[in-house]
């Protein structure tokens, strides 16, 4: 099985997500609009990382972050926020544990900055066998082909972004090779995405268990 991480296996709670992250900078006098714009720019380029976010703020003329002491303070607050806010969805660990007891390989395929994505997965601690971090949006097909070559098919692929599922089909992988499922997490920012291809629809990972029985 291959599965996305953000808003599929794990998510931010409380003052998590962009709201909690933004507050780290807004309380230092950086306007919300600037923080939001730099965050979106960093996230959609090659995936979010704090260092790249600092670079983006610097391009906007935010001199505050040129002070080493302030950068260290922000890095500490960022790590605290991350540890307090990032959790697995309630169905994630039980479902993955059940799959592993049946020796079903689990590969997390996630888009973003390699170090940051691995840090999030380390903190959330889901059961898995392998991690593949993809540096570009909508480009998970090669990782799916690798799983096919290693384990045979069909591979089941779950993601909260319909665009990622569509990209697998557009890359030529058929339903017999990769079975795609869109998971409708209520807090996913991609709920309104429209699919070009047909995918299974689930609300929780538990709904997939009959596929492996």
Which tags fit this structure?
six-stranded parallel beta sheet, Rossmann fold, 2 domains, alpha/beta, 213 residues, elongated, 15% strand
Write structural notes for this entry.
There is one protein chain. The protein folds into two domains: 2-11 and 87-212, Rossmann fold; 17-86. 46% of the residues lie in helices and 15% in strands. It contains nine helices and eight strands. The strands form two sheets. A six-stranded parallel sheet has the order 5-4-1-6-7-8, sandwiched between helices. A two-stranded antiparallel sheet has the order 2-3. Helix 2 crosses helix 3. The mean pLDDT is 94.
Number of alpha- plus pi-helical segments = 9
Give the neighbour order of strands across the main sheet. 5-4-1-6-7-8
Rg computed from alpha carbons, rounded to a whole number of angstroms: 18 Å
- Uncertain segments are none
CATH class term of the largest domain? Alpha Beta
Corresponding CATH architecture of the largest domain: 3-Layer(aba) Sandwich
Helix content: 40-55%
Largest sheet: 6 strands, parallel
Question: How many DSSP-defined strands?
Answer: 8
Indicate how many domains the architecture comprises: 2
CATH superfamily of the largest domain: HAD superfamily/HAD-like
Shape annotation = elongated
Write down the overall mean pLDDT. 94
* Range of strand content: 15-25%
Would you tell me which CATH topology of the largest domain applies?
Answer: Rossmann fold
Given the helix and strand composition, which structural class is it? alpha/beta
SSE string, helices as H and strands as E: EEHHHHEHEHEHEHEEH
